[in-house]
Design goal:
With 234 residues, the chain is of the alpha/beta class. It contains seven helices and eleven strands. The chain starts with 10 loop residues before the first helix and ends in an 8-residue tail after the last strand.
């Protein structure tokens, strides 16, 4: 994982513009009859509304102590229960199988390589009950956007500079205070390959959070996969 704890101080501002995904993940949670799990909970931006709309606790995993502290304070203020656990999603282990595991805000892109993602997907499959869902979103890499933004200082949502390493499929987001967060983009076929090798089944791929069709011009992957009812996965 690539995450500078100093980034946590600006995370609320960084994520403030991402609101469209909340209703999507909350809707999936309302359909899930069983344990709800969020990977990379951040400050609880999604988990708190999910807990509010479902009336159930959400088990939340994050590797960042600073983000977990923010989520804990925000959950207490909102009067909801989040089971907050510090951990690495690559080593996901639950006390009971989940009905829904979701990973919002492109957080799977913090995993640097195929092996990291494969391990995460395998642990997700093993942690889902038969019929359970895994949902996540990630951006679709657009070379035109990369060419425009590479090295350009931007003021919003907080002052930062993006650095693209095309050969490594990596974007370094560097805040003006020096904090850095890195993302490694993946193609549609890579995501489909991960679903396949992990023993999941693709349920849906959308181009947005209100079930927009995924097209050649889509800039967001919104995936929903399911653990089959008949599976050899332990």
């Amino acid at each position: 994982m690539s995450w500078d704890e100093a980034f946590a101080d600006r995370y609320g501002q960084w994520s403030a513009e991402m609101t469209a995904d909340v209703a999507s993940y909350a809707g999936l949670a309302c359909q899930a009859d069983g344990l709800l799990v969020e990977l990379a909970v951040g400050n609880g931006r999604v988990a708190i509304p999910v807990a509010q709309v479902t009336g159930r606790p959400v088990t939340c995993i994050d590797s960042s102590p600073a983000m977990l502290a923010q989520a804990r304070a925000r959950a207490a203020s909102a009067g909801v229960v989040l089971d907050l656990r510090q951990g690495d999603m690559r080593n996901l282990a639950l006390d009971e199988p989940a009905a829904l595991i979701y990973c919002p805000f492109r957080a799977l892109l913090h995993l640097p390589g195929w092996a990291d993602r494969r391990r995460t997907f395998e642990r997700v499959t093993a942690s889902l009950r038969p019929g359970g869902r895994f949902a996540w979103n990630a951006f679709s890499f657009d070379h035109r956007i990369a060419a425009r933004l590479d090295g350009e200082h931007q003021q919003g949502p907080v002052p930062h500079t993006n650095r693209y390493s095309v050969g490594a499929n990596r974007i370094d987001i560097i805040l003006d205070n020096g904090a850095k967060s890195s993302l490694w983009w993946a193609t549609k076929n890579e995501w489909l390959g991960l679903i396949d090798v992990a023993g999941l089944e693709l349920e849906a791929l959308y181009g947005g959070f209100v079930s927009e069709p995924f097209t050649d011009d889509s800039r967001e992957y919104v995936f929903i996969a399911r653990r089959p009812f008949s599976s050899n996965t332990p």
